[in-house]
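Final report, Chapter 2: Outcomes

The project's central promise was a pipeline that accepts a single protein chain and returns its three-dimensional structure in a standardized token representation, suitable for archiving and comparison. That pipeline is now operational. To close this chapter, we reproduce one record exactly as it appears in the project archive, with the input sequence first and the structure output second.
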Amino acid sequence: MTPAKPKIVLVDDHPEVLKSLCRMLSLDFDVAGSATDGYQAIDVCERCDPDVVLLDITMPGRDGFQTARELTQRGSRARIVFLTMHESEEFVAEAFRSGGRGYVLKTRLHVDLISAVQRVFAGQLFVPSLRSLFAIHDSPAGHVVQFHEDERGLVDGMSALLNTALRRGDAVSVVSTEPIRAGLAQRLQKYGWNVGESGQHGRYRASDSVAAAALLVKNEEVVPEYIKNYIHTLDQWRVATAGPHARLTLVGDISNQVLLSGNSEAAMEVEHQWDGLTATLRFLTVCCYPLTAMSDAHVDALPTLCANHFAVAHTPEGGAPSPI
């Protein structure tokens, strides 16, 4: 028996936008209803009981934030994805404060929309950028995944995140390939941070993910003790360099190196163990996966990999659609 499609309600004050959204989503979702303002949205949602509401922010009468709060007050179970032209962190913060679980820019509609709805339906957050995590929560912790098309896009997004993290007093660890480490060092220097490409530099340090992956997986099997020791060493370094109440922001692609070796099961196990072992620590871990290096077999593994993350960030501007 084919499982029922998730029910979705579309809310936007432009009828042509609603038609376009319906065309985009009807293959993967049951478009149960639509509305052109917040008042209609409340009525439609009470009648349809959707799984997800796709909600425009700027509407006459009652805006998207007010509508989202009203839905919550009425006990709606629907998960809300905001659709908007507004890119500012103030809007992002208000969207998640009002009950949103996803935030999609209309300029990236065809790239991000389906993935965002799928991720929110699966219980995760979908954020417009990694840096926007700071707008959602003052000191986020947990496990995030970032998909990117190319190294330049990754460096652009990561450097903004790491600049914010360093300015907030975090310890920062980069575990990636030499080109990524060099690119981040160069970009961070423009922000005023002289971090170097490798080794330890105050609250910032960088190391090689290929070497780390080679230690982590032996004979195609994950070595649990390595992960435990690695995390313990990172936590000790966090306390020593930034203090016991500081957070560690770690970005890297160790799991991707394992995935690229053809061992998707080991990559999933790395993600699973890391998520469990860091769950109670002051860690924000960002796992990076390049879309252009993914074969069909790897793409099939990504939904399971992503299940270990509380949030998904879209590819940088100009990137390819997320495969999930």
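Archive annotation: The chain has 13 helices and 15 strands.
This record, like all others produced under the grant, will remain available to the consortium after the project formally closes.
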